[in-house]
UniProtKB/TrEMBL annotation:
<keyword id="KW-0004">4Fe-4S</keyword>
<keyword id="KW-0408">Iron</keyword>
<protein>
    <submittedName>
        <fullName>Dehydrogenase</fullName>
    </submittedName>
</protein>
<keyword id="KW-0560">Oxidoreductase</keyword>
<keyword id="KW-0479">Metal-binding</keyword>
<keyword id="KW-0411">Iron-sulfur</keyword>
<dbReference type="Pfam" id="PF04879">
    <property type="entry name" value="Molybdop_Fe4S4"/>
</dbReference>
<dbReference type="InterPro" id="IPR006963">
    <property type="entry name" value="Mopterin_OxRdtase_4Fe-4S_dom"/>
</dbReference>
<feature type="domain" description="4Fe-4S Mo/W bis-MGD-type">
    <location>
        <begin position="44"/>
        <end position="100"/>
    </location>
</feature>
<comment type="similarity">
    <text>Belongs to the prokaryotic molybdopterin-containing oxidoreductase family.</text>
</comment>
Length: 189
């Protein structure tokens, strides 16, 4: 292969010869790029969803094949984001499929130095018991002036910006029914 043959294979030379100055035509294609296919091509289902990162609520399309997520992209029909995602939203595929994601409940006993794996049911039961115990130990039927208050100040809640109105409504209902009055949300919009 001579120098001219080698130069003729160079993409810039191919672009100039074909007058493809923007580099958008076939002159920039390689064997590898011609074999590339979209990850969404083989999806057997597409579901609409909302990005979990902030309260903006950007629309997402979640592509699945055989019940497994294959790609997540912005939803062009979303009136909020019109198909666009911020860097965090664009990386949400990694959030749900990444190998770094914990897929089991880890628990470290008081004074312990190592994490142990426990079943989800056991973890949920532990949380429920601790909420009940704290509520019982800090329950106030009446305040110092004798007014009926039926509350606990031993538990508080600070919600994050990823919670939507419906989730906040349900959380507030749950905590109010438990007598928890210190309920706040760190909303961004």
């Amino acid at each position: 292969m001579g120098l001219l043959d080698l130069l003729a294979r160079w993409p810039v030379i191919r672009q100039l010869r074909a007058r493809d100055l923007d580099g958008l035509g076939l002159t920039v294609a390689t064997e590898r790029s011609e074999q590339l296919r979209p990850r969404t091509r083989d999806a057997d289902a597409v579901k609409r969803s909302v990005c979990p990162y902030c309260a903006v609520g950007c629309g997402q399309l979640v592509y699945t094949k055989d019940g497994r997520i294959t790609d997540i992209e912005g939803d062009p029909e979303s009136p909020i984001s019109r198909g666009r995602l911020c860097p965090k939203g664009a990386a949400s595929f990694q959030l749900v499929t990444g190998s770094h994601r914990e897929k089991q409940v880890l628990y470290r006993r008081p004074g312990g130095t190592r994490w142990e794996t426990i079943p989800l049911e056991q973890a949920m039961e532990m949380v429920a018991q601790r909420v009940k115990k704290t509520r019982d130990e800090t329950w106030e039927a009446r305040d110092i002036n004798g007014h009926e208050v039926r509350r606990t100040l031993g538990i508080a809640h600070l919600g994050g910006a990823t919670l939507d109105n419906e989730e906040n409504y349900l959380i507030k209902k749950l905590y109010t029914s438990l007598g928890i009055v210190q309920v706040e949300n760190q909303a961004r919009i």
